[in-house]
Structure formats: structure tokens, C-alpha cells
Amino acid sequence: MLSDRFRPLLDATGPFVSIYFDDSHDTQDAAAQLDARLRDIRKHLEERSVETAMIEEIDTAVRAAHPPVGRSGRAVIAASGSIVTDEHLIRPPATTELRVSELPYLIPIVEHGLLHTTYLLVAVDHTGADITVHRSGTTRSETVDGDHRPVHKAKSAEHHEYGTAQGKVDEAVRRNIRDVADRVTQLVDETGAELVFIEGEASARAELTAALPERVAGIAVALHSGGRTEGTDQAEVHHEIGQEFLKRRLATIDDAAQRFAAGQGTGLAVEGLAAVTAALRDGAVDTLIIGEIGAATVVADTDLTLIAPDADTLSDLGGAPERTLRADEALPLLAVTTGAALVRTDERISPADGVAAVLRYAEMSSAG
Questions:
Q1: Spans of biased composition, class Basic and acidic residues (predicted)?
Q2: Which domains does the chain have, with CATH numbers?
Q3: Of 97, 264, 290, 321, whose CB count within 10 A is highest?
């Protein structure tokens, strides 16, 4: 996962409130379940002496968002009196996770968040399309109505007129699809969308993909469910989108695992707290691989410019061990400051101390 999405957190001042919870909307009592979860979250935040204004800000943000379709999780990180990160997750966490700490807790987003926070969902037919822009947890919809008719050949057309009638239909459809393609391309350029999901009849999907410029067609994904007609099962559409993001996440883990294996013994891959903190200090980390870190801690100076696995190491580096921080919070945030990618691994990698890194260049010393 690219770390650019987390950069606004670098400008915020702690303490941070990091909350992850199930906000699925797949049952008749979904609203009541959300109310219960928010009451529980409020209670725990009050017990941790979080300011009332912050609690209200979080509650308002969650309730104001458009309900998700089907199974979903929610990530909210707040600090400095406002919401800094607010995202839907592909999968809801098994239980609500809540932290109030010096640094934000990012790992659940890395594990369950969408790899791409900006994407388009296009429901297309031969008359136009309904386009929804999904961007950092918000949505905006619009409709492209093609002005070109007819799109169906009249049943009463005489046989000898078929060629002319069909030609008019084909031309109208082509121009309508072109209108949709032009608008999709414009939105991709305006929003920086990284994926375009296309739903609708197979012929309309194929025609739209063919009409898109190569750079946009290359990020298009055809969905087999959904469409532009009334009664479309949107839960199935969003499930299919979730499966596509999950497939891409697994591919990202696989790529990281292969690069880590290839880098071992060459100086381009390290594992363990000592080696990874050294690589982070040097800005050498290309991809931070996060496993089961547990409750491990690291020490840092006041400004988080120096970080080490223990106070003695930090002192040897000339730093003052002013802060003791959870490693599962400090290491991902430090990776963000250096522009490193973040990967939450599975059983393919079980690094020492639960953390590893693929490096941009080989370091002279892996322990620093």
C-alpha cells in the first residue's frame, strides 16, 4: 500500500484516536447495530478522557457518511480536534479496535483497507451511464445521458431497410458510448482514479472499454454483476469490487514476499527490530513488511528523528531516549515519513520480531 494516503497524519498533533469497527449494512437492523457500536465507542473514549468535542466529531462523521452496501469495516483516525483519516475497509474487523495514543495506529488499514482510495464505478448501457466517483471514503454520482437515438432497431422495419435502420442504431450506440468514454476519461484525469469498475450488459461493457484511451482501459475492470436497470443487486456489485481489491492485496503480498526472499543475503532485505529501525533511520526502506509485532516497543528522541529498538542503541547513536512507543505504531508512521510502501503480510513471511523490509539499496550494516 502506498503511504501517500497517510501523509496528512504527519501534520497532525497527538494524542491520536484510532478506531476500527464493523459498519456493515446488510441486515434490517443495521442502523440499530451502528447506534449500539457508537454508544460503546463513546463509552470507551470517555473512559480514556478523550475530549467531548472530539467524541462528537467522530460520532457526527460516522453518522453523516452514506451507509455502505453489504459487509464493510470503518477506519477513523482523529487528532488535533478533527478527523484526519476516514475510510471504509474491505472487511470489518472481528471486534472493535480502539486506541488513544501518541501516534496513529495504521496497521488495520494496511491489512483491510482499499489499495486504491479513488476509483470510479460506471454502470453503462447503450443510452449512457451512471458514474460514481469513490474518493477517500466519499462518493459523488452523476449521469451521462447520450443524446443519440435510436439505440434499438424498430421491429416494423422492412427487410430491405434493415441495413439503413441497423446502421443508424449502431452509429447512435457508438456515439453514446463515446460520450461516456470521454466523461470517464475526464474524471480519471481530474480525480487521479486508479481503477475504473464497469458494470452493465456484456456488450456495453466491452464497447466502453474499447472506446477508452489505452491508459484508462488499462485500469478498467469489468464486473459480471450489476447493471443500469432497476433492482440491480448492489450488494453483489460491491462484493465483487471487494474481491478484486482482495486479489490485488494478495498479489501485493506475494510480490513483497518474492522481493524479500530475493533480497536476503544480498543486503537488500532485512528483518527484526534492530535491522529495520536502522534501515528506517537511513531512509533505505522501499517496503515495510508488517507481521505479528505484538506489544513490542521502540525508543525515540523527542522529534522521532532517531528511533531504535532500545535506549542503549539510541544513546550510542547520540540520541536521547525521550519516548517509548509501540513498534506497531511507530514503524509504520516512520515509513510514511520516508515514502516507503506498507504491506501487512500473511503466512508467506514470518519475519523476526514480526517486521521486515525490502530496501532501496544495500546498507553497509544491517543493525545500524
A1: 142-165
A2: 4-112 (3.30.960), 119-222 (3.30.420.60), 252-359 (3.30.1330.30)
A3: 290
Q: How many CA atoms lie within 13 A of 339 on its CB side?
A: 3
- What CA–CA distance (Å, rounded) separates 368 from 309? 11
Return the pLDDT at 159. Answer: 45
- 205-249: per-residue pLDDT in tens? 999 999 999 999 999 999 988 888 766 777 788 888 888 888 888
Element (H, E) at 288: strand 285-290
- What is the pTM (predicted TM-score) of this model? 0.82
Strands 323-326 and 355-359: unpaired
Percentage of residues of the chain with pLDDT beyond 70: 90
Does pLDDT of 157 surpass 60? Answer: no
Instruction: Give the residue, 174 or 147, on which the prediction is more confident.
Output: 174
Calculate the alpha carbon distances from 14 to 81, 128, 188 in Å: 10, 48, 35
User: For 45-97, what is the HEC assignment?
Assistant: HHHCCCCHHHHHHHHHHHHHCCCCCECCEEEEEEECCEEEEEEEECCCCCCCE
What is the Cα 267 distance to its own chain's centre? 31
Query: Which residues, other chains included, contact 311 with Cβ-Cβ below 8 Å and sequence gap of 6+?
Result: 299, 321
Using alpha carbons, list the distances in angstroms from residue 223 to 232, 237, 239, 354. Answer: 13, 7, 10, 37
The Cβ of residue 54 has, within 10 Å, a number of other Cβ atoms equal to 19
Residue 113: DSSP 8-state: B
Strand partners, 197: 121, 221
